[in-house]
Specification:
- This protein folds into two domains: 156 residues, no CATH class; 248 residues, no CATH class.
- It is 33% helix and 20% strand.
- The protein is built from 15 helices and 20 strands.
- The strands form five sheets. Strands 13-14-4-7-6-18 form a six-stranded antiparallel β-sheet.
- Helix 3 packs across helix 11 and helix 6 crosses helix 7.
- The protein is globular.
Length: 521
């Protein structure tokens, strides 16, 4: 089936196309002769990446092994793997993109748009999220990152009961927001602050590590007598203050979970309650991923093999963190008003994909070797997995459906009366309507998402809306999804020798000969 181009299809160009860091790997050396031109776009071929080959070769056997053990993968996890294997593959559908002037044509494969472990779609989401937060959410005020991690039992609880995690996140926000308001010398009724939380699910060793990255305004807003808002900066928290806040959070979270019957405590210890936690088919995989243990195979339950190539190091002096009963609160990274670039880099960092293909490799014995982003204090730099256990790690990173991983609080919340007054986008409740505005805006005007082309241009300086051959305008002409049509087009490109890049520019033809007509007398 071939669908003609429409305005809606053009508007969704960025949402169906691939955007990948790997696609532009090495592109920096291929700069056009003119320095004013952007770098060339190169098609990403996922089937050539190591991660894709590992999943493709071992996924069927992994699914069969889980079924034999009575732990069949849930539908949403199977869908994550299945759609990843079709992500970026021309055999599963593509867009036809053509230059209006020279008629050069390129094929752009569809993406899976999954949230689990696809590096390409994760990079696209990273670029879009960072641009959205900097351009439309955060005002030109200082911003500080607060990072809160939890003890192992709570990580397991949050993975199995996301609604509990949402309740705990509300407690954490209120504790930190109250601290900022009091430090500024106001009360919760006279001042407000705001934050954006990105819930990160992974650790450096591909372990399941649910923790909060909260980007707080480094101060509070106060409404003046004339109705205008004034921002009051708050100084960075001290180590003693972080410890006190972590203790307050630990106490309130424990008390709330105990009231809900999810945690039982005695004078010395606390543990999770409820038999339904162990009935989930993913509970065993999730538990082993959290505790750095092997999940499948004959060595299940043992610690993951690691490699220590550096000497053990002491904690850095002056580390800004508060640690209480497994709760760890950090607040050492901030961006000033004039550091918008740093703020965008910070947003990209906390919304980055779970898997880095640059740190992935295979040993001579067939083990999957993954290099840690930052060495552990004991000198560990690498972890090793059997292929099936590596897929179990990936499965544990897949979030449940309909669980938001980005949350907005305070003045940034959707129902906040101050959202339109504070955010650069000026959207939200209480937005003043111009007197001339009489018609409702279209859905496209309500939310103009950053397109795939804009993301590549912003992050990698690659312009895909301009033809690299003649500098003409490039447009979508069709979306191809019918298997028969897909095969015909790919076979044609193969015959033309244009298949590797899925790019074909027809040869220049002479103008048609005009037939001479005898003149009439």
């Amino acid at each position: 089936m071939t669908r003609a181009t429409s305005q809606g299809r053009q508007a969704s160009f960025g949402r169906v196309c691939r955007d990948s860091r790997e696609r532009v790997k090495g592109v920096g050396d291929e700069v056009c002769a003119s320095q004013q031109n952007a770098r060339r776009y190169q098609r990403h071929r996922p089937e050539q990446t190591l991660l894709y080959r590992i999943v493709e070769d071992n996924y069927p056997a992994f699914v069969a092994q889980m079924a034999r053990e009575g732990r069949a993968l849930p539908y949403y996890v199977q869908r994550e793997f299945d759609e990843y294997l079709g992500c970026g593959r021309l055999e599963h559908g593509f867009l036809r993109v053509r230059c209006d002037d020279c008629r050069a044509e390129r094929l752009v494969a569809f993406s899976c748009k999954r949230r689990g472990f696809c590096p390409s779609c994760g990079a696209r989401r990273m670029a879009e999220a960072a641009a959205l937060l900097v351009d439309e959410v955060f005002p030109e005020q200082p911003v500080r990152q607060w990072v809160l991690s939890f003890p192992y039992p709570l990580r397991f609880l949050f993975a199995n009961k996301p609604e509990v995690m949402s309740h705990v996140l509300g407690i954490v926000y209120r504790v930190i927001a109250t601290h900022l308001i009091r430090q500024a010398g106001f009360t919760r009724h006279s001042a407000r602050t705001g934050a954006v939380t990105l819930i990160q699910r992974f650790g450096s060793a591909l372990n399941l590590n649910l923790h909060f990255h909260m980007l707080f305004l480094d101060g509070v807003y106060v409404e003046r007598a004339d109705g205008r808002l004034r921002f009051r900066w708050v100084k960075a928290p001290l180590s003693a203050e972080l410890t006190h806040l972590a203790d307050t959070i630990a106490h309130r979270v424990g008390r709330t979970l105990e009231r809900q019957g999810l945690v039982e405590r005695d004078a010395e210890n606390s543990w999770l309650a409820g038999e339904d936690l162990d009935q989930d088919p993913m509970s065993n995989v999730v538990g082993h991923s959290i505790t750095y243990r092997i999940a499948v195979g004959p060595n299940a339950g043992r610690k993951v093999m690691t490699l220590q190539t550096l000497p053990a190091a002491d904690p850095p002096l002056g580390e800004q963190a508060g640690q209480v009963n497994g709760f760890s609160l950090h607040a050492g990274v901030a961006a000033r008003v004039d550091q918008r670039d740093k703020l965008e880099r910070l947003c990209r960092y906390i919304s980055r994909p779970a898997v880095s293909e640059k740190r992935l490799s295979l040993t001579s014995s067939g083990l999957v070797r993954y290099q840690l982003k930052t060495p552990y204090r004991d000198g560990t730099t690498h972890v090793f997995f059997e292929p099936h256990d590596f897929l179990a790690r990936l499965a544990a990173l897949v979030p449940r459906p309909r669980v938001n991983l980005t949350r907005f609080h305070g003045v940034f919340a959707p129902n906040s009366n101050w959202r339109a007054r504070v955010t650069p986008a000026k959207r939200g409740k209480g937005r003043p309507r111009p007197a001339t505005e009489s018609v409702d805006p279209t859905p496209a005007e309500k939310h103009a998402a950053m397109t795939w082309a804009k993301r590549l241009k912003r992050v990698f300086d690659i312009d895909v809306q301009t033809c690299e051959a003649c500098r003409g305008a490039v447009k979508i002409v069709a979306a191809i999804e019918d298997p028969v049509a897909i095969r015909k087009i790919l076979d044609h490109l193969e015959d033309q020798g244009a298949m590797p890049e899925a790019y074909h520019r027809p040869a220049v033809r002479a103008p048609p000969k005009q037939k001479m007509v005898p003149a009439l007398h």
